């Protein structure tokens, strides 16, 4: 299966929820769990959010400037792509 | 009780006393007191919690309760088995309340929330959480856990269930409730509707009557004005993730609330009517009508075997989940349970091989020992499936 086939849906970042403590965006998955992607992965240009409980993935539709407001919510010490984010 | 479940079970939403997925229908557990011996009128799944509503007005819930979505005040752990919920208390200032005012009559569940109404439809309650206003309790109360000091209405004792204030309007009552994972629609006896929750995709507005700017979220019930022209009294609603469909009592009229251009063409493919409907339900991006001819008409997202096979007839009942469907077929006087769609968690049965695209297949219900299965009620949620069977 190509990656394109395994993309369940395309979701606008505005429809996702940002969790500042985990520094990730999430969105409901039809299995009951949720798709997640870290704000730093998005900043690095990745756009596929995965569900930890099943094989489905979504493609996040966003512009880099969409991240700005939420990057500012992240505690300053964590802010920046050089800081490792634990999984 | 002869209720069986199978599928996704990470938070004990299947009421099996554990948190492992199962692909074979398995008998559900009930905490005492036992439920009625007659089948529920509906099985209502949320993301990771499930409710049962019985014709007696009793409600049960199980599964994830971390934000009070099961209705129980103790939110420290999920409910591994169905527990009976408290009935609604008598309305304030009423000395001789009618039984219908102190029983549950309508329940709908979304992602992490539950909306309940009394049998007389005159009071509506909410529990759980919804950042987009899904509780209808106002923008100051988007969750029932942790318990706020000042809430618009008190919780029913021992529960997280709060009444939605000032709703429905004086003199009206709820005749049906519907929800997607993020928005709620209440239909009233005068044919009007109210909605709350996510509204960025115009879920609560006809494309021609959308206020500018569009409210992204709506935290208290708002009257919907769905008809720029030619209105009809609404009897029922169904919700896909980003759209609302309103249906007249006979099914001769259908209206769509949502963007004029929709994902998976759920609006563009909408039929002109659904005359002869027996049941209408929605998956996350599709709508399914069970007709009195025993056929299912579906529109919207159709890839990966989501639609029923062409020529399917003899359908007695259907239940539409997030991305799968289960149905009861009658063939030569024998009932059988079938499932199709996305079955990754075993929610389409014990499929060998690819569970991502499951063509229509029979799901055997264990037990019965040669007796005939009479299927009374079915349900389908987020990769979960349910069936209440009487063995005769
Ligand atoms: Zn998933």
TrEMBL record, chain A:
Gene Ontology molecular function: any one: metal ion binding
Pathway(s) the chain acts in: Protein modification; peptidyl-diphthamide biosynthesis
The DPH-type MB domain, residue ranges: 7-63
Entries under InterPro entries matching the protein: DPH3/4-like (IPR044248), DPH_MB_dom (IPR007872), DPH_MB_sf (IPR036671)
GO annotation terms (biological process): protein histidyl modification to diphthamide
Cofactor(s) listed: Fe(2+)
Reaction(s) catalysed (UniProt annotation): [3Fe-4S](1+)-[protein] + Fe(2+)-[Dph3] = [3Fe-4S](0)-[protein] + Fe(3+)-[Dph3]; 2 [3Fe-4S](0)-[protein] + 2 Fe(2+)-[Dph3] + NADH = 2 [4Fe-4S](1+)-[protein] + 2 [Dph3] + NAD(+) + H(+)
Keywords: Iron, Metal-binding
PANTHER family: DIPHTHAMIDE BIOSYNTHESIS PROTEIN 3, DPH3 HOMOLOG-RELATED
Family as reported in the entry's similarity comment: Belongs to the DPH3 family.
Name of the protein in its database record: Diphthamide biosynthesis protein 3
Protein species of origin: Terfezia boudieri ATCC MYA-4762
Lineage: Eukaryota, Fungi, Dikarya, Ascomycota, Pezizomycotina
Automatic annotation (TrEMBL), chain B:
UniProt GO molecular function: guanyl-nucleotide exchange factor activity
Record Gene3D superfamilies: Regulator of chromosome condensation 1/beta-lactamase-inhibitor protein II
Alphabetized InterPro entries for the sequence: Ran_GTPase-activating, RCC1/BLIP-II, Reg_chr_condens
GO cellular component: cytoplasm
Sequence ranges of the RCC repeats: 122-190, 294-331
SUPFAM superfamilies found in the cross-reference section: RCC1/BLIP-II
Name used for this protein in its record: RCC1/BLIP-II
Originating organism: Terfezia boudieri ATCC MYA-4762
